[in-house]
Design a protein that fits this description.
two-stranded antiparallel ribbon, Cytochrome Bc1 Complex, Chain D, domain 2, about 425 residues, 17 helices
């Protein structure tokens, strides 16, 4: 390269760096919104609507510490970069939202900024709540101002450098976030648009059901794909892949029923939610109106299909399958049946079960380790559950029984190695 060309390249790089730094600096800048002392009272109908929206967004799940007061925060959200602690949403004037105006709350949802102008971590799903209408934001604000105030300071986030800096947040936002509002798609029905507004906005379904890159970001073409939960213990399966959690071939009423009750019956047997999705149904979707559940079902059913390539099948070693069959006969057969057929209305079938045979083994192994119950709902008030086997089975035994289940009764999924089980513990 000639000196002239080198000088030109360095000049362009310098200009690009200057523009990037200026953009980061601009993104970091945010004016403080003045505190208020007496938030205006809202009418009962607005508060009731806000409570409904809070359930649609399942806000309490993150903003309530185990055993703590509702919406008082303090729950640690584990991420690959460290723990982020959910904030106090009660109207306490010192530690909560007591001095926040509706304008400040609206900006937090739409722009991901705190009242004082600081950038918020995207563990708070402002990449989704940015779509929420101002009227819904104000109703949600009115509801949160009506809950009992709790004085509870939010612990400091346990994040390392540079993730713990405003500059890093600003750079992340330049890559992955743009404030916006939901815009109805004119070619779709009103029901589809309502479902899209809920699923993409307050319910923030693709916050979990999305592939993410090394920076924790997700591009539009990665949304609705499979993604590990932030703590890595469960996988949110793809909602576009018919071999995972895609529902394009499900009737709308079956999808709505699954969101309402946590279980459904279909041509290939019962399906039941477990793990984090059980919490979503328990505290969130079961409380939505049937019209809103249908709307979400219409939207989810219409997601473009994107099948994932299946890895080449390799049978497990005979000794692994023999051990797995022994463990299955001792601990599993009474509920799930000798042919993996399950029991209608109680225990899901394992033969042909998408959660068992999808390429990722994470959920199958986690179900064995941690067990779990379907959510208790009005349509399934006394759900059957599965006990945890974390302390009863060794890594080798868990791997063997998972491999056996994934390769029996016509199932053709890859075997699981003991070290993969150890990692998920």
């Amino acid at each position: 390269m000639s000196r002239k060309a080198l000088r030109s390249a360095l000049w362009v790089m310098g200009l690009a760096s200057s523009v990037l730094l200026a953009a980061v600096g601009w993104e970091m800048h945010g004016a403080e919104i003045a505190p208020i002392s007496n938030p205006p009272a809202a009418d009962a109908a607005t508060i009731e609507r806000g409570a409904y929206l809070a359930r649609a967004g399942n806000c309490m799940a993150c903003h309530t510490e185990r055993g703590g007061e509702p919406y008082a925060g303090g729950r640690a959200i584990d991420t690959p970069y460290g723990a982020v602690y959910a904030s106090n949403l009660t109207p306490d004037a010192t530690t909560g939202l007591g001095t926040w105006s509706a304008q400040a709350f609206r900006r937090a949802l739409h722009e991901g900024r705190s009242r004082d102008g600081r950038l918020l971590y995207p563990v708070f799903p402002y990449t989704h709540t940015t779509l929420v209408s101002d009227d819904d934001s104000d109703a949600l604000y009115a509801f949160l101002q009506s809950v009992p105030p709790v004085e509870k300071a939010t612990p400091a986030h346990a994040l390392g450098f540079p993730v713990n800096t405003q500059a890093a947040l600003a750079a992340w936002r330049l890559l992955y976030f743009k404030p916006q509002r939901f815009e109805a798609e004119p070619t779709q029905s009103a029901e589809w648009n309502r479902g899209a507004y809920l699923a993409m906005g307050l319910a923030h379904c693709s916050a979990c059901h999305s592939e993410r890159d090394a920076l924790g970001g997700s591009t539009p073409d990665q949304r609705w794909g499979a993604g590990l939960m932030p703590d890595g213990h469960w996988l949110a399966p793809s909602l576009r892949d018919p071999a995972q959690a895609g529902v394009a071939d499900w009737p709308v009423e079956r999808i709505a029923g699954m969101l309402q009750t946590g279980r459904s019956e279909g041509a290939n047997g019962d399906a039941t939610v477990m793990g984090p999705m059980a919490e979503v149904v328990l505290d969130g979707t079961q409380h939505l109106s049937r019209a809103d559940l249908r709307a979400m079902a219409v939207f989810l059913k219409a997601l473009p299909a994107q099948p994932s390539p299946a890895p080449a099948f390799e049978p497990a070693k005979p000794e692994v399958l023999a051990l797995g069959e022994k463990v299955y006969g001792q601990w599993c057969v009474d509920c799930h049946g000798a042919a993996g057929q399950g029991a209608a209305g109680a225990y899901p079938p394992l033969a042909g079960n998408r959660g068992v045979i999808m390429a990722s083994h994470v959920n199958a192994v986690q179900a064995i380790l941690a067990g779990g119950f379907a959510p208790a709902t009005s349509g399934n008030p006394r759900p059957y559950g599965m006990p945890p086997f974390r302390t009863l089975l060794s890594d080798a035994e868990v791997a063997a029984v998972a491999s056996f289940v994934r390769q029996s009764w016509g199932n053709r999924a890859l075997a699981v190695a003991p070290q993969e089980v150890q990692r998920l513990r």
